[in-house]
Design a protein that fits this description.
Structural class: mainly alpha
Mean pLDDT: 93
Radius of gyration: 22 Å
Number of strands: 0
Oligomer: single chain
Low-confidence stretches: none
Length: about 110
């Protein structure tokens, strides 16, 4: 079922307002001359690692070490990501190369 023109305009308006609110709200809550609260600074330090940790857990939740290929493509891809990151310190390169290696292993090798 298609939306009517007023429904489409209302949806676009709500999306625009929500996007603008997420862009402007931090500047209103934390003005330039005022120090950022310690809790927000703490979240800025720990959330990036927590997000990556959750992504790793999510990526490996369906891996079965008891069934073929016993998690080998995932293990090899992780080793590529970790090795490249330790060597080059380029997150985008590490993740992209690990993804390519994983897909090639799945499509060609296993």
């Amino acid at each position: 079922m298609l939306m009517t023109l007023p429904q489409q305009l209302l949806t676009i308006g709500v999306v625009v307002l929500a996007t603008m609110a997420t862009r402007f709200l931090p500047f209103l809550l934390f003005p330039a001359g005022k120090q950022t609260p310690p809790f927000v600074r703490y979240l800025g330090r720990v959330l990036p690692a927590a997000v990556f940790g959750m992504l790793v857990v999510y990526c490996f939740k369906g891996v079965s070490v008891t069934a073929s290929p016993h998690g080998l493509p995932e293990l090899i891809a992780v080793l590529v990501v970790v090795g490249l990151h330790l060597w080059k310190r380029q997150m985008l390169l590490s993740i992209a190369a690990g993804t390519v290696v994983y897909m090639v292993l799945l499509q060609v090798v296993f």
